[in-house]
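writing this on my phone so excuse typos. first protein, seq and then structure
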Amino acid sequence: MIRKEGLGICYLVGAGPGDIGLVTLRAKECIESADVIVYDYLSNPELLRWAKPEAELIYAGKRSKDHTLTQEEICGLLIEKAEAGKVVTRLKGGDPIVFGRGGEEAERLVAAGVPFEFVPGISSIIAAPAYAGIPVTHRDCNSQLTIFTGHEDPTKEESVIDYGAIGKAPGTKVMLMGVQRLEAITKAMVDAGVSPDEPVALIRWATTGRQRTLTGTVADIVGKVASSGFKAPAIAVFGDVVGFHEKLNWFESRPLIGKRIVVTRTRKQAGSLSDGLRVLGADVFELPTIRIDPPEDLLGFARLVQDAHTYDWIVFTSPNGVESFFDVFYKIYKDARSIGGARIAAVGPGIEKKIKEYHLAVDLMPEKRFVGEGLVEAFKKEGSVENQKILWVKAERTREIVGKSLTEMGAILDEAVAYRTVKETEDVSGSRARFEREGADLITFTSSSTVDHFMDLGLPLPPDLKIASIGPITSKTVAKHGLTADITAERHDIPGLIAAVVEARDTIGVSG
């Protein structure tokens, strides 16, 4: 369909099975370009961090007997926004047209004259078994795959699915959305002659840190569900391939599997910590407590950046400072060599990595203590800084140890306030509500400001919640609020924090 002038477009996008790493590049492009994003219950809310700041985010989640919007209302919403000239991205868990009602939405869009595009996604049909170590096909077992749903249109007078025939079909059978009707479905299979010993696996919250697999047989799986409290959302796999689960269970054997961990960094910066924890199997959800805003005196900061080449040293004590500095620097200059002969000092490896992104090297960094005191010690070992001009790129509010010490050492110091840390007021992913509803096993703090602003939220803390801190300064701030940092990283950067969490994993409770 040709897109008419003034008319928007709707992308019906598969958001994948849950693991943010399984989202397609095309899906990411659609999220980034969207004016409006309409997202489902099963689409990972962390995908929304790719959205434009001004994008309108609309939750249209649908759980059993709990619909935020009806299907009719969702279709009407997509049409309304597209007719207003908006680029609309409709995020649907898994694939949009595999039991996802994407076909119905596309029909309504076409009837309204709205252009649309299907963006396929990885379906839990194959992703869930794969993450449970169950190959849906295997030369030693089968070469046929049958897919069916356990949840039909509730307006139908009777089921049109012959579960008995499906059960007797050769090969692997994968059922979506049928946990609540599992007893009736397995009974229909047995009544039709399916062996009660047929292996079954149920996989809950597949591909995420909440994943859990329950195995059994057609005869006993219902009883196991009842005794274990196993609940939806889950898929069921029937067939001999279930036997591979114990041998090939690669994902659920990761060190942080089942650990529910909160990340409080800024929305933009959360990725490195979140991704590092997720790779180790953690169920991570981001609850940003701070955001980075420009300094109040942006013009004054820009003047100092412009004169950077006149300094002997430029000192960076945070990645945000690096980013703010070079954002302004490259608005003024086109060549990194315009920084002149200034040498660069950084307080730790994370800051060094950020500086390298701008194709510059760090001349001075602490060997072990990646805090202000460590940087001061490094300067003392370097030699005298008396009468040397030093530009300290810093946050509006930060500890004064670096500036005070360098001044006492005789340096001529200018402080360039690069950014302000302010309270994050938005909660686009619903993480605060999730924290209040489900709690967590561990919360991570990467700076004193994340601690202060989290405590300002006034959220109730679960009794068994553990606290992990990036370093002793942050741990002191935790103590200031009457709490204890159970884990303090020895290396005061993101890899060090992740390593400390892994080392203490046995002390962190496992959520149900």
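second protein below, same order as before
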Amino acid sequence: MTNETNLAEERKQHWREELRKSKNAKDRKEIPRVKMRELAPEYRITNNSEVNLGLTQEQALLEAKRCLDCPSPACVSSCPVSINIPKFIKHIECGQFLEAAKTLKETSALPAVCGRVCPQEKQCEEKCMFLKMKKEPVAIGYLERFAADYERDAGKISIPSVAPENGIKVAAVGSGPAGLSFALDMAKRGYAVTVFEALHEIGGVLKYGIPEFRLPNEIVDVEINVLRKIGVEFVTDCIIGKTLSYDDLHEAGFNGVFVSSGAGLPRFMNIPGENLNGVMSSNEYLTRVNLMDAASPESDTPVLIGKNVAVIGGGNTAMDAVRTARRLGAQRAMIIYRRSEEEMPARIEEVKHAKEEGIEFYTLHNPIEYRGDEKGRVTHVLLQKMTLGEPDASGRRAPVELPGQTELIAVDEVIVSVGVSPNPLIPAAISGLEVSKWGTLIVNQDTMQTSIPDIFAGGDIVRGGATVILAMGDGRKAAAGMDSYLSNL
């Protein structure tokens, strides 16, 4: 065995000894899963404060004791960025909170972000051994957030070590989770990394798409500053394909380009009335509120503040939009979704929070027409009632119309959140890129390399829409692929 393997085996043995000393497995199974502290609903809808409050040290220590330290932990293999989950949790159990944070940063560029918005229940926690025992899984996401927050609050933020500079320049297009994850891994390998962002703020969807009450901007900024400290450069207000071309990047000395420009093109349903004033996409709504201060009366580009707001869709973005509308003063805020609640792609926690905040749910309803007044402003939405038929290609039961059963609801604002399409600018600006019929970039799934050898891609521009953690996994995979490509030139 290699020295690294020997060390890993010794560490496992040490952990098992600690496990036996602290609590045996039978006792651990009886510890109930921790409950996250939250702001009260009646208070939180009056402001933009973060809803979840994190774990106390006592809660984190107890929850960490639930981990059974599985010999072959499936939670690690189901994590898109391969966090060593047993290791960081064991550090928490031993009270080594800063070491836990360092472990997270070995593979994750954004632990405090992922601890808040990653769908752990569908990834690492879904593989927890406790589920096979009909018990709740270890709260991996809560513990990840705790470790990252502890390090930040203690003012002892660890900086990942990096290899000596190799003199090779690489570019990341887009500063969302895929671009940031790529930047971290390439900087750690010794590359000179520059991230180009079209907007005026670094963070991509983490800034413009996720509200402060779910992910405070200051949390994102702290993690971005870690990248700055290891040498990553950021350029804002720069649109690759317009401000700078692919050829311009070559002339500037960049040897590889990672495209992670996201899926910022909103989809609509092409139903009558979508051009009425007061009907907008969730992308526009959230970007204007989150990045442009559009809810302020002093804003140069104010957003409509509706009193009766309907949000079309059932994903996390729809929940973000409807909960934002509630905080902006909507007296009635509604989710309209064509399937049942069981089929909703939104996280269970987000649905729970929305209900607590007074959001109405019109499930098994689908908009078929928007109606307006003589001034061209939306006043009503006509809903078609639905039922569920056989499963469709996604595995969910397909919605089927109930003939003749409709409902007319008064609204003064409609936010459409039924999906997004990839940003078409880069595929259109770079000839030779292979693009799918959906507008996504086609890549080698093992390396994330496109049809142009020095261009790699990941995140929504490849997937068409994905979670933060999946985009980060793409960034890591692309970094490994590009490093191999450049090393063999």
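The first strand starts at residue 169 and ends at 173. thats all i got for now
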